Amino acid sequence: MKILIVTGQLAFENVQKAATGFDADVLRIETPVASLITPQKLIAGFLSSSFASKKYDAALISGFSKFDFKRAESELKIPIYLGPKHAADLESVLKSAENAGFSFSKTVPACEFIQSQKQAKTEKLLLEYEQKSMPALRIGSLAIGGCSKMKVLGEIANVEDLSRPQLKETILSYISNGADIVDLGFSPEAAEDTVQQLVSFSKTVSAVPVSVDSGQFSQIIAGISAGADMVLSLNSEMIHRLNLFFQSGPNENRRIDFESFCQKIKKTTFVVIPDFVFDETNFDSEPDFPSEMKGSFSKLNARKIQSLEENIRKAKAIGLEKLIADLILSPPNHHLLESAASYFEFHRKNPHIPILFGVGNVTELIDADSPGANALLSVIASECGASILFTPEASAKTKGSVSELKKAADMVLASKIRSSAPKDLGIDLLYLKEKRRRPGMDLDFISAHPDLTGSGFSKSNLNASSFVLTGTLHPDFIPGTKWGWKNDPAGNFFIGLVKVSELSAFVRSINVGSESERQAGTQIETQIEIQFEKLKNIQTPNREVIVAVHPKKIIIGTDSAFMMEKIIQENLITELSHAAYLGRELQKAEIAMNLGRSYAQDDAW
């Protein structure tokens, strides 16, 4: 595919560099910003260029462009599509264009279009793989274990405290966020009737399997009798009590139908846990081991695995057929690594038994953002042979964990199928961070000597400040506002993030012509030095500030509200729609600055 890349003056060098090595030519139009290239300028620029005699399969314009290029397509006989928004994404776009059958879009920027195509391809790959997978067991129609995808089990804690509408809303929210199974967690005080009623109600909300999570035998019996699809969790004591329950047979004092119960339990899946778990006592000292093996990592894991295997044998002996193993993931700083290793070793010895991996045991007990933690724990879980990822959303910091684990499970499986790292899949868990930084503000937009006219930075209030530099924009630069909004007669703003060091160096580097101007410049620079000395104390992640360039003034600051106040004071804005737009963009810039992200005016977050 022969491609013509259309760009402006400012991005030309970066675009030309990105296009090197591809079957593409770069057409430079005499307009500073590529998104402001009109169809008329493109037609004139192409026909007067050395490329006019060449044939092209496609022309790419800026992904930010809002112009209608139908006339240009007709006159130039070249299909015109939206390219990427930023030159930084051009190389990946051109690589994608080399693939057979690839197409661009006339309405969606190429960078976003490729991302959506990658996502669709990954989703199709996962769907086809899941349909062909051979699971170890099924909970209803849901495939568990074997080579099927890891499923997500979302727990609703203290479910008896919720009203029916609240419970329904939570269940549907979990399902819409990707939960494959909904777990009802009951407190020890919950009555049997309450357990039965809530399980029965939950089963009417959707067809998604429902599990009961309880350490009370009576609650487990109540949950099974109400039709729970899965039960968490059975240790040797619970298995023994179930056996006694079976052996006792029908009992008129019981409030459940024994025969119906026995039929239901055959369909119920049980999560089995070991009796032996790591704690500080048995990890530091184990009297049954020789002195040289006390606290031994391998010995303790062996005992834990042995305990679980024994409980699984006991469960099978009393007729429980659908079993899942859980070695109980330890929380951070309480032998997390050792407990993860026990999963790995158990799976090596018992590859056909599905495993539940309690991700929430870690994420609920560490003050860290959950997306990255859930992603990494999902990879570890997969390598340990996990079939189910378990999480509550009990605290504010873990809200969204169901959705995060669903994405993580998809990423892990897709990367396994592709034999690659879990990246560049079209799906990701990058909510605050970004794969590629967008280009920052080009200070060449400012063409006249900035003159300090006001200040607001202070050591006591560095995050609520701005100061004003007078200056002008490049004479050909016309910043775009949101399409369809009225231009402000007072002038528009170009907004960006600039490192303090770059801004300081730029101000000092501006040339002054006459002797009087040089003397005036020295006085100005002295004032600027004072202000930039204060700027050195800025503590934003990348030591950046927000710069809003207007034809009359340059507003610099770290707080969008104070900057907006200064803009109003300086009479740089007259249109209400422009004020709304400007406030939004300054706030976006402030958030990006405080998160260490890149910012590009008018771009999506």
How are the SSEs ordered, and which strands pair?
Elements (H helix, E strand, L loop, with lengths): L2 E5 L4 H8 L4 E5 L10 H9 L10 E4 L8 H7 L3 E3 L7 H8 L12 H23 L4 E3 L2 E3 L6 E6 L7 H13 L4 E5 L6 H14 L4 E4 L3 H9 L4 E5 L1 H13 L9 H10 L1 E4 L7 H5 L12 H21 L4 E4 L10 H14 L6 E2 L2 H4 L6 H14 L4 E5 L8 H18 L32 E2 L13 E5 L23 E6 H10 L5 H21 L8 E6 L3 E5 L2 H10 L6 H20 L10
Parallel strand pairs: 1-2, 1-3, 3-4, 7-8, 7-14, 8-9, 9-10, 10-11, 11-12, 13-14
Antiparallel strand pairs: 5-6, 15-16, 16-19, 17-18, 18-19
Beta content: 5-15%
CATH topology of the largest domain: TIM Barrel
Strand pairing plus helix content: what structural class?
Answer: alpha/beta
Which CATH-level-2 architecture of the largest domain? Alpha-Beta Barrel
* CATH class descriptor name of the largest domain: Alpha Beta
The helical percent reads: 40-55%
InterPro entries: Dihydropt_synth, Dihydropteroate_synth-like_sf, Pterin-binding_dom, PterinBD-DUF4346
Organism: Methanolapillus millepedarum
Protein name: Pterin-binding domain-containing protein
Domain Pterin-binding: 136-413
Provide a descriptive summary of the structure in words.
By secondary structure, this protein is α/β, with parallel strands linked by helices. The chain has three domains: 3-113, Rossmann fold (3-Layer(aba) Sandwich), CATH 3.40.50; 144-233 and 260-308 and 327-418, Dihydropteroate synthase-like (TIM Barrel), CATH 3.20.20; 443-595, no CATH class. 41% of the residues lie in helices and 14% in strands. It has 20 helices and 19 strands. An eight-stranded parallel beta sheet has the order 12-11-10-9-8-7-14-13. The protein has a five-stranded antiparallel beta sheet with strand order 15-16-19-18-17. It is elongated. The model is unreliable at 289-295, 448-465 and 473-484 (pLDDT under 50).
